[in-house]
Amino acid sequence: MVITTKKGDLGLSDIKDNRLSKDELVFEVLGTIDETIAHIVLCQSITKNDEFKQIVDDLSTIAAIISGYKNLFEHERIQKLDHKIVTFHHINIFSYPYNDYNKSIINVTRTIVRRLERVYWQYHKINNIDDNVGIYLNRLSDYLFTFI
Description:
The protein is mainly α. It has helices at residues 25-47, 51-66, 75-87, 101-126, 131-145, and strands at residues 12-15, 18-21.
């Protein structure tokens, strides 16, 4: 398998059946999904919580939707996050996780999910994407908040 295709050297990239400039909003959304996945994997590695693996699968599905390969995001995924959020016995006061490396990593991840949510809604205004994606991203940041 060839890793370097050199097809992107001039600032263009392929998405489904299109060749687009790398500064298109779709690539900002996809890049932020990629960054989020990398941080979710980091969260899993420090917490050993295998629930994060499902979140990576969910984000991969969202990337497929953004890329035009899938159309719908299952509402059930939102319901599962909702259920997990309410099972946490957590104070509803935000506090910064000083002196706690693991919680600090999760907090950074939460802020990246918030950025992903913002760029997703920008993209959503232009494209007809399933609203469940935005709802899921909002819940995901809430879910991460419960770990802090």
